[in-house]
Amino acid sequence: MPELPEVETIRRQLKKYYLGERITEVTVYTPVLLQNITSRQLQENVRGTTIRDIRRRGKLLIFVLDTHWLVFHLGMSGIFLRHAAQSRQPRHIHLMFDLTSEKRLFYQDVRKFGKIWFYSHPVPFHHLGIEPLSKDFTLNNLKKLLHLKRMNIKRFLMEQSIIAGIGNIYANEILFRARISPERMTRSLAEEEVRRLYKAVPLVLRRAVDRLGTTYRAYRTVEGESGENQNFLNVYQQDGKPCRRCGTRIQKIVIGNRSTFYCPLCQR
User: Which percentage of the chain shows pLDDT scores above 90?
Assistant: First the structure.
């Protein structure tokens, strides 16, 4: 599933190529992806509008049009492509935008778990927690959240109502960076461990954005290229391999029905 770094990479590239473009037509090939509007209604409301901004909230991608918001959750395999020829799965292109500059934009989703919402007003997204790359992500705020929640630290990182945007890949990598066992409970962390966690969250995410995200299976950039962060992962999907820090073999366990990877020596 695309996490914050992948969605942020897509957002930046879309903004580079499509900001200020006017939509002349939108073609919906798979109406089931639309959550609160019909294909016809979407076409009528989006046709002739200009893309004023492209934003991200957690794992959500938001197209700000003249007076409307078009919100995408990319599900397991949703991506945007500039050219249909870049698609490795052309039969899974479900949405196409035609623009006045003769550009096109394609939305592809092989698993079809993605969702698309249309709003005539800005959405506050109250169900989402703090943005880990924002000024609101402070050490004091993190301490408060850890104190309020009584749960496993890995689940804490992945809970979207607490911190928005972190999924399984980056929760594993953040905990390795912070030298914290994924089996620890939130309230058991010492002051120094909380500080290491606070530093690790934005560091791991920003480095992944700089590397255009992590490609496993479906994810591609808007240019149709793979990300590079998979080449720098320390623990995720590295079970059986030696830890890059101490040489101990990375172990795999299951926490909350999710595969979890960690170094049993570095992350005691």
Answer: 95
Q: Give residue-wise pLDDT tens across range 82-97.
A: 999 999 888 999 999 9
CA dihedral over 49, 54, 56, 59, signed as positive or negative: positive
* Predicted model pTM: 0.96
Q: What's the chain's average pLDDT? A: 96
**Which residues form the catalytic set?**
2-3, 59, 258
The closest alpha carbon to 178, from 190, 163, 187, belongs to 190
176 vs 113: CA distance, rounded Å: 30
The predicted model gives 160-177 an average pLDDT of 98
pLDDT at residue number 216: 83
CB atoms under 10 Å from CB of 213, counted, come to: 26
| Domains in the chain: ranges and CATH | 4-119 (3.20.190.10), 139-262 (1.10.8.50)
Cβ 69 vs Cβ 92: under 8 Å: no
- In Å, what is the CA distance from 227 to each residue of 6, 223, 224, 251? 8, 10, 10, 25
Rounded to whole angstroms, the Cα distance separating 62 from 86 reads 23
